[in-house]
Each structure stands twice: as structure tokens, then as C-alpha cells.
Amino acid sequence: MKKIYLVVPCYNEEEVLCETAKRLELKMKTLIDNKDINEYSRVIFVDDGSKDKTWSIIEELKNNNELFGGIKLSRNRGHQNALLAGLMTVKDECDAVISLDADLQDDINVIDKFIEKFYEGCEVVYGVRSDRKSDTFFKRSTAQGFYKVIKFLGVDIIYNHADYRLMSRKALDSLAEFKEVNLFLRGIVPLVGFKSDIVSYERNERFAGESKYPLKKMISFAFEGITSFSVKPIRLVLVMGIIMFFSSLTALAYFLVTWINGYTVQGWTTVVASIWMLGGIQLLCLGVIGEYVGKIYIEVKSRPKYIIDQFIIKSEEK
Ligand code: UDP
Ligand code: MG
Which residues pair with 311 in a beta bridge? Predict the structure, then answer.
């Protein structure tokens, strides 16, 4: 029997936490009773610098039930960092970790299948949404657009997979080798490799509370994903430069012909238009390159991705 940990990042989740804990407790109890996992398996909540009562709820859960544990980050670092903090903190304590969101939008009954695949020898099991019915039209179409763009740019990520997955200790040890600060776990995990499989499930709506991913965060997350994993945008800048160069040669030929024919005074529109257009393209290219330079700047500083304030868990010795 293996020891499985669940890692649940939480940011201002006081409205859902008690219910989530109740459901997870039931799930874990059934798994333990069925001898799918051993009795030392735990549920670890990672408090990502919440401003509400999240941490005190976690402390209370831990005090009342040895199943629960908690990690408190020193401040809000965002979902990806909170998740990584959880994974890296518990990886040496257990055989595999399943990560899931605090709002239980991801069907927890799939955990059985995750564990089944793990016993079959998979080091990574991805939870994949079978549909996006519970999403708004806007979220659905932007998400699909994102997957198309990222695929076009040559990044290998699993379609419709969020961060609901099982990773074995071996896979987590390898994940720890990826030192990048610009964190996009969905892109990094497939790079880890090993035998993996997919389990599909239907995603529900949040049963309480609001999404902590407003549009602004979602766009920057998508942008982060693209620029952390692909240098194709820079290459497109080069392609654009080449196209501009050849079109300017054609334009030059045209200008020479008009000059020979004596029509040189006209053409104010062409001059002005090309100045604006070229200026625009140059700024755009500078922006794209600047984005990568910025990324390098952040990477070289290699600041810690998270700082742990407290880790509370009931030890195994009784
Ligand atoms: N989350 C976090 N830090 C943040 C934002 C979100 O740890 O800065 C957690 C949040 O508590 C939840 C998970 O990340 O458990 C996913 O967030 P949410 O459900 O709001 O995103 P959505 O499902 O709407 O994409
Ligand atoms: Mg959610």
C-alpha cells in the first residue's frame, strides 16, 4: 500500500474550505478502508498568503484530524508557486502526490483512477477535462485559442489539462531539477517524461466562492506560458524583418521608376504611411524581444519562488 498525499493550494478560500475538507476526508477514508492507500496518507492545504480566515481553518482542521496538514507561505505568490511549494515540501514524505484546487471543480472521484494508474506503473497521471460545459463561453473560447497558439508555437502541453494530476516521488524529484523562476507547471511536467497516462473527467462549477483567476491574471498566465516555453515569437520577429526588407526592395524599385519618370513630388501618403507602419512594427518587435530580456533578468536573479512560514502536520509516530 502506498502513501499518497493530496496538495491543495488555497487563496482566500474560507467559504469553501470546510466543505472541501469534509469531502476529501470522506474520499480519503474510503480509499484507506479499501486498502488503496495506507493510513499515513494526508491532505495538505497550502495557504498562499490568504487575507481571510483560511489559515486558521487549516490549523483547526489539523488539530482535529491527523489526516490534515498545512503549509503557510509568507505571502501570496500565485497558484503555480503555491502548488510547487506544496509538492516540493511533501515529496520526500510520500510515494505520490495528487494536486487539486480547493474549490473541488475537479471531480474527486477520479482520484481512484489516478491511483489505479499509479499502481500500473505510471509516474505521472494527468486529469483531462472531457468538456468545458461549466465554463462561460468567453473562458471556453479564450482557453481553446490559447491551446491552439501554444501548439502552433511548438510547446508540448496536454490539451484541457489544468493542474489536476498525480505525480510519483520519482517524477517530483525530477521536477525539482527544473530551476526556472518563470513557472508554468503544465509545460514543465510533460518535459519530465516517464510513463504517463490520462484520465478524463467532467469539471463542475465552483460550489462556493469566486474564481481567483480574473481575466488579467488569466492573460498574464497564458503569456507567461508562451514566452517561458517558446522562442518562436522572436523568430517571427526575424521573419517579419526579412519580409519587410524584401518589400522595401520592391518599393525601392517602384520609387526609382517614378523618379525616372519625374513624378517625385507626389507620394506624401506613402512616406507618412511607411514611417508609421515601420515605427509600429519596430516597437512591436522591440516589445517581443524585451519580454524575453525581462525573462532572462528575472531568471538570473533566481529569487526564491516561495518562502515557507510554517509547515504543520501530525507525525506518523503515535
Ligand atoms: N490560488 C492560489 N493562489 C492565487 C490564486 C489562486 O493558491 O493567487 C488557488 C485557489 O485557491 C484555487 C486554485 O488556485 O484552489 C485555482 O483557483 P480558481 O479556482 O480561482 O481558478 P479557476 O478554477 O477559476 O481557474
Ligand atoms: Mg476553480
Answer: 71
